[in-house]
Write a structure and sequence with these properties.
The structure is a homodimer. Chain A has twelve helices and 14 strands. By secondary structure, chain A is α/β, with parallel strands linked by helices.
Chain lengths: ~375, ~375
């Protein structure tokens, strides 16, 4: 299958590219390094340097014998989009090309505007490009569990059957998110659902929880093939950030009570989920939605697990509750369904002490590079 | 009350400005003539010329003695937005500043991109400006009944109480629209709802049905004070278009079966609804939603009413069913609630033969200017 990965330089984009390439697919990556540049502008460098895409592709070629094409440019610009889709007419598109940070989207008016314009325009261009250049191609879009928020009823996989005054209707599961970033993903869903119905697109929306991890089968222990490992408040996902705080000897920053429950998954599962969705695609005119998580934790439990694993390695790990800078429910019902990807064949890689230990070991190796002042800055929601 | 009208040059913007000004409010209008320019680019001139905003404001001053300030510029540009909000710090904002045509949004990739970028960025800038310059100000936003689509259950006013597996949650009423334009209004709602919850904004969302009419109490019979009367497929609303077809002697173009039911209202009611919402505002942190319609008709009934009124005036009015260029349900359940604005005091101006006759008379006066070839072009949804 010819697979075009939009946002192929990202935390998930590059591991996905290698994984699909290793499985025999013909892969191309597109990126404009937006995330690299934002991280750099906001003083949030990753734990260790990550080569740019052409160099990664060349390293990957040397270890796997496989080619990954690279296109560098801005997917909000149609002239570039059309060039890419003419040069590499894909059978499938994996769309990661979004500003992915909730706190970044709340940082300032300009950051919010950038998030809104970038995320919506890349999604629109992806739709228009499929329509114009490869109308049969499927789209696999990364959504987020954050679109649902924390409703007081079970979170179903994408859809909700409503009975109201004796009549019935199936709706997209109602979404209400807790950051502008997450809200742009709701808007993406609105847009994709409209064009699925109108133009018969085949779309899978993967509603993903926070991802942790750094190594995949394809990266092995070669750090040059690993994704960005950001640990700052803006671009580091929560568990990755806790691991760096544990090693740096600064307290793990738990927001408020820490009772916020989310669904998590290992980056190894992310790449498998995306592959499974691609290999058993949605049909024309279908918006297929999967909730992409493998287990749920509250934040305090995650912090406790990191503390325990760290202390077992003679790190002095402390946990600190700080006033929640976000506006979110701290105590809430949370019961998401997530059977669809398991039905497609996903074998979950659950969080274990062993996994925490191996991640802590990798972080320890780079302990000298950690810049503790960049970990927490306290972006306030209101 | 100091009221800033975004999109004050539009079909509804200018009549709203006069109405609020006549009621003693201090009104300013902002516009970049986007709609004028799009109409002109797409060869869809209104039935008779409409002076630009400064001239309208000056005519209004001469007939009413009241000042309406005018700002000409692009609300997607923050430097302009901040200039306007510094110069005229409003107590309330009425936000009409959107590309308002469903068929235009389906015309081409560029038209879709323009609609998306313009509508979302103006709404975002409106939110950011309130936050920065006038955090207590209320926002009255024009939504559309089209956001709901045609679900198989009753359409409530903005919210839906869901019972699911023995638990309950109130959600924004799920929305699924039938054009990209209508979808951008859903996205607006998503964004406003997020910032209402996060920043405590006071927002009223008026979910309006198709509007008809041309004269209001304030315009009287002075055509220079009347709004655009577009009759082309892109920018003319359906009843206005039928009236022009009736006078021009071309068949009324009914799409498909004509069984599509929508909720309609007279432009006189629109300006009253907006005023009522402003004068009894939403509270801080409240997203208040009203369904803004006064009666429902299917399209064929509207066509029949125009035919009857026209034939009574010795026009030879024919009705033609044409293949539906849109993708929409033609036979569907439709039962929207619309009691909220009546509770605020709206006295509906229902559609009568008398109203149709007086509109036909106005159109007849300009019969020589009608360009029949611009009425229907058949923009296809798929």
């Amino acid at each position: 299958m010819k697979i075009l990965i939009l946002g192929g330089d990202g935390y998930l984009g590059w591991p996905t590219a290698m994984h699909l390439s290793a499985r025999g697919h013909d892969v191309a990556c597109v990126d404009n390094y937006l995330r690299r540049n934002l991280c750099s502008n906001e003083d949030g460098d990753p734990l260790f340097p990550t080569p740019r895409l052409p160099e990664r592709a060349s390293i990957w070629k040397s270890v796997s014998g496989k080619d990954v094409q690279v296109f560098i440019g801005d997917l909000t610009q149609w002239d570039f989009v059309s060039e890419v889709f003419r040069a590499f007419t894909p059978d499938a598109i994996v769309h990661y090309a979004e500003q992915p940070s909730a706190p970044y989207s709340m940082l300032s008016r300009r950051a919010a505007s950038l998030t809104l314009a970038n995320n919506l325009q890349t999604t629109a261009n992806c739709v228009f490009a499929v329509r114009e250049f490869c109308p049969q191609a499927q789209i696999v879009k990364l959504g987020t569990m954050g679109e649902y928020g924390t409703p007081n009823i079970d979170i179903e996989e994408g859809w909700l059957d409503v009975e109201h005054k004796g009549r019935r209707q199936r709706f997209l599961y109602p979404r209400q998110a807790s950051s502008l970033y997450h809200t742009t993903k709701i808007m993406d869903t609105d847009m994709l659902w409209f064009y699925v119905r109108t133009w018969g697109l085949a779309v899978t929306d993967l509603m993903q929880g926070p991802v942790y991890g750094i190594t995949t089968q394809e990266s092995g222990s070669d750090e040059r093939l690993m994704p960005f490992f950001n640990y700052d408040e803006l671009f580091g996902t929560v568990l990755n950030r806790f691991l760096v705080q544990a090693v740096a000897g600064v307290p793990l920053t738990v927001y408020g009570s820490g009772k916020q429950i989310r669904g998590y998954l290992n980056i190894i599962d992310t790449v498998n989920c995306v592959r499974l969705a691609l290999e058993k695609p949605a049909g024309p005119g279908e918006l297929r939605v999967f909730n992409q998580l493998t287990e749920t934790f509250d934040v305090l439990t995650l912090a406790d697990m990191v503390q325990k694993a760290g202390n077992a390695m003679n790190l002095d790990v402390r946990v600190q509750h700080i006033p929640n800078p976000r506006k979110e429910a701290e105590e809430h019902y949370y019961n998401p369904a997530y059977t669809g990807l398991a039905d497609l064949g996903l074998k979950p890689t659950l969080l274990t002490d062993e996994i925490l230990r191996s991640m802590l070991q990798l972080v320890l190796k780079h302990k000298a590079s950690i810049r503790p002042q960049s970990i927490f800055r306290g972006v306030k929601w209101a």
